[in-house]
Design a protein that fits this description.
The structure is a homodimer of 315-residue chains. The first copy, chain A, has 315 residues and is α/β, with parallel strands linked by helices. Chain A is built from nine helices and 13 strands. Chain A has helices at residues 28-33, 64-72, 94-111, 145-164, 186-195, 214-226, 243-254, 280-286, 294-312; strands at residues 12-17, 36-42, 53-56, 76-79, 116-122, 167-173, 175-177, 200-201, 208-209, 211-213, 231-235, 241-242, 260-261. In chain A, α5 (186-195) runs parallel beside α7.
Chain lengths: 315, 315
């Protein structure tokens, strides 16, 4: 029997949503390591550590999330599930259904006297004209249904937490890359195309961003959950780079820079030229900082894609 | 057969929610008079004009609102239904269920290619430290679950309207009084108590407010629906009075001022000293202003309570 799970003195009983997703798949082991009894809601057939209790449910079915909350009676909730189809995510009305599902979870959590919640927000909530984006100061003026839905959920969740008497942190997650990324997204797109010997058309590449490797984001979320820090917390590396820097790093590592085609893609209108994070709360109050550099994360991701494409190639 | 309903050239087919409520009960006749084909969603057994088509449904049952929208296929939506139990309204999680129900209605309305929406908001969305509250300028910083829920819904609804291509106005309704008011609310409480010969304990009465008679509010909403005006519109009289002025007017009319007990009630912490409206948009862009003075509205309300209490008294 594992040493880490079923001790009576656990860190708490955490209910996780989105725990099979792009970011969330990396939280389960750190949560077990931190001493939580881990419960996962998912509509998938997940491959997860044996210590994780899986609850099969579709959060978009009204009442489903509430029923799991009532049966698990978690002390902690880490809610990351959302609609994330690349391209469609920005203005799909599926975002509204996730607001509805999230409100149901929060109402249920209040009813079972839960203590601590971390919810996944997004840098798309910010008005990025302010730079770097600060939790206390930068206005939220989202220009997409996605950003507005997350921002609206946060506004309601903070009042619900106050009234129900639980502690709530809202993780405003900046840009992510890592294994299992959708091939339409930047790092996955460039890495795959170059590995396959295909051209990689890109935008001009001068957009300034803060990128973080998904296992790092997961670590930050678990640290945040265990902290007493409340309110909005930017989850980002604190280092800003251009998209061009990332693309060129991949090109150099794969020695296929000649396949990169800067300037062939027009960036979507809603993409700001600069979107960066003030990380003083994450570093100072939560006490978290990345354990790897951006380039180490990119190299690990490139290695993952190499393994994927090698296994799948006919040779 | 009535002349006003079934002409092929109607102003549109309007779906009304909350049309049996404190404000909403006054919209049905003006909508018919304005030439709309009127459909009402309600969970009650309403007494309504014969030309109104009633759809019995509970909007809090997931899918119920969507089904009515799909069967009616309205061109216009006037959504006023909400949880309004006095006292409880401020921080009840029922507010979240109404956000969920409202999002479902909006998604359905987008799917049937609706053209025009008016939603009922509230002055409680504003940060009342700014005064008078202006639609473009005063920040929304609600301090209650009620205010946060309405504010959050508005933020999402505006993006949904943009993406779905319908026209949307958000009516930020200030203080209301009129017939059928809950006896725990100010005008009803003072009027009833004085008519019954009972003392009326009040707060200090120095709060500054903008009160409007419910039939006037309904008229403003119908005018707004027929206008092309989009975004937030304050719905208020534009005249500010103290709560003491209103209470003293009732006392004078009923010649029972001696029953009024100012200073015996401590106002709730979330009540601002001043909460008033800039009504330039309502007057200048929508072209609406009240047809009666505050005192005329109060007198009509007093007369309504007199009739109620006379009919019900054993003598």
């Amino acid at each position: 029997m594992s040493q880490r799970a079923t001790s009576p003195e656990t860190a708490g009983r955490v209910l996780v949503t989105g725990g099979t997703g792009f970011i969330g798949r990396h939280v389960l082991v750190p949560l077990l390591d931190a001493g939580y009894e881990v419960h996962l809601i998912t509509r998938n057939e997940p491959v997860v550590p044996a210590e994780v209790t899986v609850h099969r449910a579709d959060l978009l079915v009204p009442g489903a999330g509430e029923r799991v909350v009532e049966s698990v009676r978690p002390s902690h909730l880490l809610h990351m599930a959302w609609f994330v189809a690349p391209g469609q995510v920005w203005n799909s009305f599926e975002n509204l259904r996730w607001v509805e599902a999230s409100l149901e979870l929060l109402r249920g959590f209040a009813r079972v006297d839960g203590r601590r919640v971390v919810l996944a927000g997004t840098c798309s909530e910010y008005d990025p004209r302010d730079e770097p984006c600060r939790e206390r100061g930068t206005p939220t003026e989202p220009d997409t249904v996605y950003g507005a839905s997350k921002d609206a959920l946060r506004r309601m969740a903070e009042l619900v937490a106050r009234e129900a008497g639980f502690s709530l942190a809202w993780a405003r997650i900046f840009l992510a890359f890592g294994p299992h990324e959708h091939p339409a997204r930047l790092v996955a797109f460039v890495t795959r195309n170059l590995l396959l010997g295909q051209p990689a058309p890109c935008s001009h590449g001068r957009q300034v961003r803060d990128f973080l490797h998904t296992p790092e984001i997961a670590g930050a979320l678990v640290t945040l959950l265990g902290s007493g820090v409340t309110g909005v917390v930017n989850v980002a590396s604190g280092r800003t780079v251009t998209i061009g820097h990332i693309v060129r790093h991949i090109g150099n590592r794969l020695e296929r820079s000649e396949l990169i085609r800067f300037g062939e893609v027009i960036p979507p209108a809603h993409e700001p030229p600069v979107l960066t994070a003030d990380v003083e709360r994450l570093r100072g109050e939560v006490g978290w900082r990345p354990s790897r550099t951006l380039e180490e994360g990119l190299d690990a991701t490139i290695a993952w894609w190499k393994a994927q494409l090698t296994v799948r190639s006919p040779g």
